[in-house]
Every structure is written in C-alpha cells, then in structure tokens.
Amino acid sequence: MDRKRIGSILALALVLAAASTPAYAAALPPEQALATLARGEQTTVTGREGGTESGILFSIGKDHITLRDGAKLRSIPIAQIKTIQQGGRTITLAAESAPAKDAPHEPKQAPEKAGPPVAWEKLIEEKLNKKISFDFVETPLQDVVAFVSSLSDITIVLDPQAVKGKAPAVTLRVQDMRLGSALQWVCKLAGLTCVPLDGALFVTTAARARAAAREDGEGADLRKLPRPLADAMGKRITFDFVETPFQDVVAFLSSLADICLVVDPQAIAGREPTVTLRVAGMPLDQALRWVCRVIELTYTGRDGAVFITTPELAKKAAALDKELGPLAPARHLPDAMAKEISFDFVETPLPDVVAFLQLTANLNIIADPQATKGRELSVTLRVSKMRADSALRWVGRSVGMVCVWHQGALFFTTPETARALLKK
Q: What is the pTM of this model?
C-alpha cells in the first residue's frame, strides 16, 4: 500500500475519532490537554474561578498559554485554566492533585513579616532571570515586546521615536533562555538597545537611551506636592493602552486616581497623539512619566493639579505665573477664592463653563470676547474639591488662556492682554 493511501486512511481515522469524541470529555492532565491544541486557532479559555478570555492561540509554554487579540497578548497560567474551547471542542483540564491524606503534615510556620519595599531595579533584575521560550517568525517588534511584557510581568516600553515608519520584524527562536538574554537578542536583531529606566525597560536607540538617562526623574517632585496629590501619585495602577487617544488616557488616569490632570493645548497643537503602553502595579508618577515620554511630553505639579506639557512650555508657564502673581489681591474675595469646588467638564463650551463657575463660586467671571473671537473654545477638565482660585487657573490653562483680576472681576484672556493690563 503506497504512502498516499496510508495517509488518507490515517486522516479518515483521525476525523472519525474526533467525530466520536464527546464535546465535554473527562478531565485531562494539562500536558496531555495542551498537546491537542493548535497554535493560530481561535481559542476561548475559562478560568477555575470564572471569567473567560478569547483570542488566537499565540504560544504554549510550560506553565502558561498566551492568547493574542489584535495587538494585545495575554498570558494565562495553566494552573488557573478550567476549560479550553478550540475548533468546536471543549477540553477540561484536571486540577492539580491534592496531597495524599496520609501524607505527614509539616508544622505551620509563622508568616514572615513584610520587609522594606524592594527597589524596582531589584524586582526587574529578578524577573529577567526567568527562563523563557518562544518562536517568532517575521513577528512585528511591537507584538514581540507586548508578548514578553505580558509573560514576564515587566513594563517594557517601545520608543515610538526609535521605530518611526515601519517597525522591524523579528525572527528568533529560543528555548529555556534567560529572559534578559532573550530580550537582548530581540533588541540586537532590531538594531536597538534595552535599558532599565523609571520602573520599566526602555527599548530604544543607543543615543535616545543616553538622553533618557539624563532626563530620568523629571516630572513632579512628590515631596513638594500637597499631601492628597502626592498620595495619589504614589498609588499603584495597572492599564493596557493600545493606540488609545491621549485625551482618553488622561481622562482614564484622572478618574482612576481622582486627581486633576491638565493637558497644555499648545503642547499637542496640530497633532492627535495616541498611546500604546502596558503597565502593571506601577506607581502613578512613574506610569505618567512613561505616558508622557512616549509622546515627547513631560509633566509638572502645581496649583493642586498635574500639568502635562513640553519642557520648554513648562518653563514658560512657570515664568508667566510668577509674572502675573496671585489670581486676586488678598483683600479681594478671600473666602470665595478658598472655597472648594468640583466639576467634570467634557468638551464643554467655554461660555457654559463660565456660567457654571459664576453660579458655583458666586463670582463675577468674564471671558474676553477678543480672545475668543472666531474660536469655539471648549473645556475638558475634571477637578475634585479644589480651591476656586486654582480651579479657575486650570480652566484658563486648558484653553491656552489665563485668569486675572481686573476691575472687580475675574477675567479670562490671553497672556499678552493680561501683561498689558497689569502694567496699567
């Protein structure tokens, strides 16, 4: 009997065997169950404690499987999987066997006391010693970075400026290699380097790595921020943004941490930046630095909020504040200026914002018609229990204006007009 004939018979036997296999078979040992899966197929995983994850089966490791959904890769520990659905079949994985009843019980030990926080450099170093296996064939570098980040639980940031245009593809197969070494090979093949920076690993060019190291730590000094804002910036957060509009990222972080984040309109004029970034359990101040860094921005803390802008514009804004001085002289409106107000504006027309603030703060507020002539300015800004004088400043900054005290009223106008008024 020739090989072609034998192959046809075997294929028919496999089809008949599959057809006779019930959809819900007895639980299989994980190793045996995973051997029946095919990479590249649509797969749905159900956890032992509920919840499902779906995507294309990207890889199968010793203790995890990875699903791909578009540009996102999600690693799922095998021990947490109850069932896997693929190709019309549902495979149940046997749970880890419990210890034998007659096994001797080890004496219980007192729980160890938590030690001091471990520096992020030490945590990353430990994770880089983990063994990893993968097989990439012409895989976009973004997907490779996302996969390694998800598998290792390390925030790995691919510098968009280093891969402008078309990002390189990676063809590389490693087996039980140290993660740090594997990542070095990925970067070497892509003509890039990888450096630890600000709680993460930064994949970029050698020149930009040196520049980033000099800028490390830029941003708001938590010691100089008001206590509530400093506490919020130290909060650990997790997110996974994939080509998410920058304004949506800001709104998400502001809501998550309950702080006021303001984007300088001049800093993003003429462009609509997006953010692709995944972080897990990272302090907000570090996460925000990465959000800003991937779109060439920075941030500073002032007036009870966080101001996102460029380094050059941040210096100009600080100089302008010093030049203009307090929002209103101390003898004017002391109680009204100290009053705490809250609001959440989303693309709200400036005239509506002014009307709201007049009623809420019981103040005379006027928007300069010459400064808004021919422009439909809108405000996207969220503040919670902020002093009225600070909130008014942020409303002005959010539309590229300033708020000054003039002839018994608070006046929104341009910086140039404000300077002229102060000289009179």
A: 0.63
